[in-house]
Write a structure and sequence with these properties.
about 625 residues, 4 domains, 3-stranded antiparallel sheet, 14 strands, alpha+beta, about 45% helix, SH3 type barrels, globular
């Protein structure tokens, strides 16, 4: 039996249509599957796709048609640089504050030349003019008349708002014609046509243009007032409640202690000494200098990622201090005063950050903290990456004093349990809590570079929300399980201990594996080591990861985090709800974050997101949610 002839041979360079559009890019044929009648092709950026024969065109014929259309243009139209097909190009949409860890989204569209200074600054939707077979078969004259008619009908759609972007687009090889259209949510004002003489001047100014604020989070301006009052009050309530003999959340809150009980100068000195000690370890020329993700200006900041070194040195310093007779149970007995001192430092830091943000260049401001409202911007963070020379304040606070301090407090609680209960060694429950949370922190510091791709570092400004969270919320609420066990021991049987340990390791595996896949894919989607991962392309030029754990649920990292949170709480038993606070808080936080991600991604990726949701049905917990 005679096999059907193959039109395009292996290794041949052709023009392949990008799925879901009428855009053609130069691709290389890798092979042909006679059974499915599909060609496997590879784009210049390493993306491999399977295309039908009708989605592939001969490169020589494609170029001939492009030159023919170029010659048929009238001189008047050639002068309009903003509408010339030879000068139009795609622009990648700006990364917004609601970018999700969920879909592990990264740049992976076919490559084109981009102005790096304008990368991620201008958000433009490119909608191709559909090519028809009739237009391809008509003569040049007929094609020209049809093109003129089409341009008249789409005159408004072919203009770019002068106040937003009069950008001279660069040529992209063998690319069809496009319209530059304003996004639907940009308003109804009529766009002004960009004049050629204004384009180069506008290009130079765009990178330094003030960032427009994104939609307000956390209840908007009124929500900022609420959270500024509620967060410190809630931490105070938890600390006072866990000190009670019966720390039930159903009990009426205990009366406030006298004001002098909140203040201890020695506690303030201890906190300041700890912060400066961690700052010294941070600036030491030890460890790797890592590149951050590209900013709106295209710049990449450098970060000293030596967190693992810092926690190792801190552990040695604590061991030496204990050997020299320093009583770390002071942390347990002065927990409230230490929390007050940390709160004071976070307030002073937040005020400094807000004041200095008014001297920052417009391009250095955070999209989410640029509302113009003093209270909201103070809460959310006005400046994106505040630095004192090369000392990055946000990165330092995110990973060092509070996170390593969390482990120090847990260790102090274990010593306090031994002292209070008259034990020669900590209880099994206390050991599990200490080991589980120590593993979580050490893993984060060992993989410190991964935090550079998170929403906190990429999008959120540094203000009260992050300063309070890093210096107060993490060290003084995440340690509640250890604090609870000091006065409320919970013996564990050997089978229970083994079951809790297994649960923790399972959650940690999911958490680390999914985060590693996401971080590696965001940084370099063309890495040969990631060739096994499957993706769904989107019209924005980014791809949605649907392979590995990301093909099981949309947020596998959330799933792993929740399983670990469950393992942290189980050693405390079921006598009181208070040690389960972290688990309850985390569920609410992740469900809220998931709903935010869903609405933002549906707006951003349209039909591709619907396809993604059909492919990955469950959000966090398989077959449950």
């Amino acid at each position: 039996m005679r096999m059907p002839s193959v039109k395009y041979q292996r290794g041949e360079m052709v023009m392949g249509r990008w799925p879901g559009s009428s855009l053609y890019y130069e691709v290389k044929v890798l092979g042909y599957d006679a059974k499915s009648q599909l060609y496997t092709v590879i784009y210049k950026d390493g993306t491999e796709l399977e295309l039908k024969e009708q989605d592939i065109k001969n490169a020589a014929g494609f170029q001939t048609r492009s030159r023919s259309r170029s010659r048929s243009r009238s001189p008047g139209r050639r002068r309009s640089r903003s509408r010339s097909p030879a000068r139009t190009t795609r622009r990648s949409s700006s990364r917004t504050a609601a970018a999700v860890a969920a879909a592990a989204i990264t740049e992976s569209a076919p490559s084109s030349r981009r102005d790096t200074k304008l990368k991620d600054t201008l958000e433009v939707r490119l909608s191709p003019l559909q090519q028809t077979k009739a237009a391809e078969n008509n003569s040049n004259n007929k094609h020209e008349r049809k093109e003129e008619k089409q341009k008249e009908e789409n005159n408004t759609a072919n203009r770019v708002n002068e106040s937003e972007s009069k950008v001279e687009a660069e040529p992209e090889k063998n690319q069809g014609r496009y319209n530059l259209r304003r996004r639907k949510d940009d308003g109804d004002a009529k766009p002004a046509e960009a004049r050629p003489e204004q384009l180069e001047e506008k290009d130079a100014k765009l990178a330094a243009a003030p960032a427009a604020s994104t939609p307000l989070d956390f209840g908007g301006k009124m929500g900022a007032y609420f959270w500024l009052l509620f967060l410190p009050a809630w931490v105070l309530f938890l600390i006072l409640q866990v000190n009670l003999e019966d720390p039930s959340l159903a009990n009426f809150p205990s009366p406030l202690p006298p004001l002098e009980a909140f203040w201890d100068a020695q506690a303030l000195g201890f906190v300041i000494l700890w912060v400066f000690f961690q700052a010294l370890l941070y600036i030491l020329p030890v460890g790797k200098l890592s590149d951050g993700m590209p900013l709106r200006s295209g710049e990449r900041l450098k970060y000293r990622t030596n967190g693992f070194f810092a926690i190792m040195v801190s552990a040695v310093a604590v061991a030496v201090a204990v050997h020299q007779g320093v009583d770390l149970t002071y942390i347990h007995s002065h927990f409230l005063q230490l929390a007050t001192a940390s709160f004071l430092i976070s307030i002073l830091l937040s005020v400094y950050l807000y004041v200095r943000s008014h001297y920052a260049a417009p391009g250095q401001l955070a999209l989410g903290g640029n509302s113009g409202n003093v209270v909201y911007d103070f809460f959310k963070g006005h400046e994106l990456n505040p630095r004192i020379k090369n000392f990055d304040l946000k990165f330092f606070c995110e990973m060092r004093p509070g996170l390593i301090g969390w482990c120090l407090i847990n260790f102090a609680m274990a010593l306090a349990e031994m002292k209070q209960q008259g034990l020669d060694a900590p209880s099994h429950s206390m050991i599990l809590v200490n080991l589980f949370q120590l593993l979580y922190v050490v893993d984060g510091l060992w993989n410190e570079e991964a935090i550079l791709t998170t929403m906190d570092l990429m999008h959120d400004g540094f203000g009260f929300m992050l300063a309070f969270g890093d210096l107060v919320w993490v060290p003084f609420t995440y340690t509640l399980q250890a604090y609870y066990l000091v006065s409320h021991p919970n013996p564990l049987s050997l089978p229970a201990l083994a079951a809790i340990l297994t649960l923790k390791l399972f959650g940690f595996y999911i958490f680390r594996k999914s985060n590693s896949e996401k971080n590696a894919f965001r940084r370099n989607p063309s890495d040969p080591k990631l060739s096994y991962l499957k993706t769904i392309p989107t019209a924005t030029g980014k791809s949605l990861l649907v392979s590995g754990w990301w093909g099981v649920v949309r947020h596998p990292n959330y799933l792993g985090d929740l399983i670990m949170a469950l393992a942290w709480s189980l050693p405390c038993g079921f006598s009181h709800l208070l040690p389960w606070y972290y688990m309850i808080y985390f569920i609410i936080l992740l469900v809220h974050r998931d709903s935010r991600d869903m609405s933002e991604c549906r707006r951003k990726y349209g039909s591709a997101w619907d396809e993604y949701c059909r492919t990955v049905r469950y959000r966090i917990i398989p077959r449950v949610y």
